[in-house]
């Protein structure tokens, strides 16, 4: 194995070699407008109680709304959702211009074409340097079309 001595490069190299599932996280801002983003850091913390975590950069366009939010919707994505993943990772002013979403439980923006949606309450937000770890309580779920998962690997979307 080759040694990578620069910590930032070691981290980037390691996680480019690690495939991640792709999710979209949505919420509403204080004015009731939809906001959201693509995330590859979503993970289950356990089932008793049902907890989920995800990470977000504190410089992201969604951060100010996330800090004030109570609820989030975590959408798991499948092979037919790559365009949604790309859109929700692009210009934040264009993420909800299409008619591919609706308001759902807790008034959250929901993309019905996702494979599943977890409705969750924000429990804790832990700021760490320029990022944060968000821990949520999963309260209910919506089941969509079962399909092969959308993965993110080496800066590209792949079908699992």
Could you list some keywords that capture this structure?
160 residues, mainly beta, seven-stranded antiparallel beta sheet, three-stranded antiparallel beta sheet, globular
Which helices and strands appear, and what pairs or packs with what?
Layout: H1 7-16, E1 20-21, E2 23-28, E3 34-39, E4 43-47, E5 50-57, H2 63-68, E6 71-76, H3 82-88, E7 102-103, E8 109-110, E9 116-128, E10 131-143, E11 150-153, E12 156-159
Antiparallel strand pairs: 1-11, 2-3, 2-6, 4-5, 5-10, 6-9, 7-8, 9-10, 11-12
Description:
Strands 3-2-6-9-10-5-4 form a 7-stranded antiparallel sheet. It has 160 residues and is mainly beta. It has 3 helices and 12 strands; from the N terminus they run αβββββαβαββββββ. Helices cover 14% and strands 44% of the residues.
